[in-house]
Amino acid sequence: MAGKEREKPAKKKVVEKKYPMKEQPAAERIRNYKEVPYGYDVETAVKEARRCLQCKKPVCIDGCPVEIDISAFVLAIANEDFAEAIRVMKSYNNLPAVCGRVCPQEDQCEKVCVLAKKFEPVAIGRLERFIADYDYEHNIAPPTEIAPPKDKKVAVVGAGPAGLTAAGDLARMGYDVTLYEAFHNTGGVLRYGIPEFRLPKAILDQEVEYVKSLGVKVECNMVIGKIFTIKELFNDLSFEAVFIGTGAGLPRWMKVPGENLIGVYSANEWLTRINLMRAYEFPEYDTPIWAGKNVAVIGGGNTAMDSVRTGLRMGAETATIYYRRSEKEMPARIEEIEHAREEGVVFNFLVAPDRVLGTDDGWVRGMELCRMELGEPDESGRRRPVRCEGSQYEVECDMVVVAVGTYPNPIIPEATPELEVTKWGTIKVDEETGMTSVPGVFAGGDIVTGGATVISAMGAGKRAARGIDAYLSDK
Amino acid sequence: MGFKILGRDDITTESVRMVVAAPFVARKCEPGQFVILRLDERGERIPLTIADFDRGAGTVTIIFQKVGKTTYHLATFREGEEIRDFVGPLGRHLDLGKIGTVACLGGGLGIAPIYPKVRALKAGGNYVVSIIGARRKDFVILEDEMRAQSDELFVTTDDGSYGLHGFVTDQLKLLLEEGRKFDTCLAVGPIPMMEAVCKLTAAHDLPTLVSLDTIMVDGTGMCGSCRVTVGDETKFTCVDGPVFDGHQVDWLEAKARQRRYHPQEREAMEKFETERGTA
Ligand SMILES: Cc1cc2nc3c(=O)[nH]c(=O)nc-3n(C[C@H](O)[C@H](O)[C@H](O)COP(=O)(O)OP(=O)(O)OC[C@H]3O[C@@H](n4cnc5c(N)ncnc54)[C@H](O)[C@@H]3O)c2cc1C
Ligand code: SF4
Ligand code: FES
């Protein structure tokens, strides 16, 4: 392959577009659960890395919620020094194979990349994924340094990205870490929410194995707040600090009539049955699912895209998104929206259900929708949808997935009255340290921010690990 | 790493009792709560009421009726074998305190889950009148245990092979017509039975609590599979229940939701029987 010469990429003519990544053709992939993009091969990755200008002020780093030294790892790939690239990456990010696949790069590093002003940005996400996958295949990362044991116990609650990151970092600092998870398996949303075709579970398993290899003990089937309260973790199990990363897993409903009809799923139920419980392999796996032929999904985020694309793979003839704002406001990753379109998903903007219509025996038969228009911006800065009265119309469908957001999980706050929460039910923390109103108790991820992103949850896990270390070192 | 079965007996041809080593669950659980279990890597997650527990021994007792693939499969587990996952205690703990005279109705597979509630009511100083019913005599379970924890016990069978010929509601109706007064009624069983009890008690202004056995996945409020309309509100059985005001439950919806996977459940059962060669 090319690449003997080491001339500075910036001197060359700029390659205007990202090198494309091969993908499974749409017609084929809607009949399987295999991952859609195949990832870069070595040659393409190196070529893509050489598009980078190696800016003096790499603004991409400011765009990254965990401030990965992007220009350094991209340069290492350009130089074909993959061990160095993964070393840089892992010093910032414990889960690069996940982030390379699911981060909204177009809103983060790639949004601010200097190249993006005139051309396409460097494909930072694809390079991140490349280097993580290359490492798993060739095992080139230098072994992680683990500090000598500190003989202090820390409990981490919730094995999503926030908890996995906090646990991994604390173990590296030498703490004796136990990770408690309510489900029978780790990963949080990465396991029960994000489908196999977007994030293969084998990748997640490798990332979890890595965290375990750092010495983290994982205990599943433990609903903290029920089996042990936070206080009991301190008093009965002698933990000296606790991190809460229990996520925002409670489904939000539309609160319209007909929402409890059969065939109406929360996105969480639809995705959990399929991803965590593997109902798509029923009856080889025991968990049943009922999948419609004309699937309607309400919402415009990643969860909605995952739900609708899963609908197709479960055999839907039509799969339709109904979103109450316009395409511009859709919070989903651009790649997911594009993939959904290629797969034949139909998008309806500026509409919202007034009710779900049912048959006499309680099954969904359609929806009554109301058109919307965009009014003034709301607190989130997005223009608020306003109903167009009299515009109501009916559509037919036999299944509805409600993907309009989630609430924080209340089990721990309810069982821990001394823990201060906001009016939205999220846990209040000190931005810097992640410490809650209860000394020694830290929190981060979706339970603090409400539904956000994998990388912001990881960032919060990292900050809290440092906060816990500082707290326990002073004690 | 699973949860070991320390004791197992067939209490009728269709019901099994198991004592499971689950010290952390045993340490914390209270009457009215449940566990969710998964038998193996391919298993589904199903809720079962905690029938009894022994904090000292670190055990939790479950009693289940063989009704579908998972319960039939669980019934084949022997002493010493392990259940892969066993999560709990889930649901709200039912603390009724002292309310006076309570009618406790357990129908069929509802007898096992009502038993711990009866025991708690009795321990709380209430006068407990229990009525348990089954299809026929040999399906009546926990009669001795129930008798020991109740001030009065009535038994009914659908075919009249034991006790009153009829349903638990028939027995309750007789008592109400005799002029017996109750402060509260508690009913656990199949939906048609609980619905019938509620219809009867509504006519007598007798407050009635029911314990719902909805289809669940996580059991921690994350999916809404277990949702039920109570009054004007949607409630999640796993976190808001399982006990609700029976007069407020939308039974029509609850019935439809409970049936929603029947074809799949049958398919899974048939596959299981074929594979086991027990068809
Ligand atoms: C379908 C879907 C698709 C998404 N796609 C993307 C994407 O493409 N890119 C992106 O950046 N973000 C995406 N997100 C958002 C992202 O997944 C979340 O922001 C992120 O997972 C939050 O991480 P967390 O660790 O805070 O919580 P979670 O991932 O929710 O993990 C919390 C964990 O805590 C456990 N838990 C809860 N309560 C208890 C308790 N009481 N005791 C013990 N354990 C408990 C839960 O079971 C869970 O495993 C998506 C979300 C969904 C739902
Ligand atoms: S901003 Fe873009 S071009 Fe500049 S260093 Fe970062 S990735 Fe390279
Ligand atoms: S079982 Fe999922 S919310 Fe109750």
Folded structure, characterized:
The complex is a heterodimer of chains A (475) and B (279). Chain A is of the alpha/beta class. Chain A folds into 3 domains: 26-138, Fumarate Reductase Iron-sulfur Protein, Chain B, domain 2 (Orthogonal Bundle); 153-249 and 408-474, 3-Layer(bba) Sandwich (FAD/NAD(P)-binding domain); 250-406, 3-Layer(bba) Sandwich (FAD/NAD(P)-binding domain). In chain A, 33% of the residues lie in helices and 16% in strands. Chain A has helices spanning 26-29, 42-49, 59-63, 70-78, 82-92, 96-102, 109-112, 124-138, 161-172, 189-192, 201-213, 230-235, 267-276, 302-313, 334-342, 411-415, 446-449, 454-474; strands at residues 153-157, 176-180, 217-219, 241-244, 250-251, 264-266, 294-298, 318-323, 346-349, 351-358, 364-377, 383-387, 393-396, 399-402, 406-407, 441-443. In chain A, the strands form 4 sheets. In chain A, strands 3-2-1-4-16 form a 5-stranded parallel sheet. In chain A, helix 9 links the parallel strand 1 (153-157) and strand 2 (176-180). Chain A starts with 25 loop residues before the first helix and ends with a helix. The model of chain A is unreliable at 1-7 (pLDDT under 50). Chain B is an alpha/beta fold. Chain B folds into 2 domains: 3-90, Translation factors (Elongation Factor Tu (Ef-tu), domain 3); 101-211, Nucleotide-binding domain of ferredoxin-NADP reductase (FNR) module (Rossmann fold), CATH 3.40.50. Chain B has helices at residues 23-28, 69-75, 111-123, 143-149, 168-177, 191-203, 237-240, 251-258, 262-276, and strands at residues 3-10, 15-21, 34-38, 46-54, 59-65, 82-83, 85-90, 101-107, 127-134, 152-157, 164-165, 184-188, 208-211, 227-230, 233-236, 243-245. In chain B, the strands form 3 sheets. Chain B has a 7-stranded antiparallel sheet. Chain B is globular and about 55 Å long. In chain B, 51% of the residues are buried. The chains are: A alpha/beta (475), B alpha/beta (279). Chain A binds chain B through residues 182-184, 220-223, 226-228, 249-251, 253, 259-260, 262, 265-266, 268-269, 272-273, 277-278, 282-290, 361-363, 409-411, and chain B through 24-25, 28, 38, 42-45, 69-70, 84-90, 217-218, 220-225, 227-229, 234, 239, 252-253, 256-257, 260-261, 264-265, 267-268, 271. The structure holds flavin-adenine dinucleotide, iron/sulfur cluster (SF4) and FE2/S2 (inorganic) cluster (FES). The site of iron/sulfur cluster (SF4) has 16 residues of chain A, from helix 3 and helix 4.
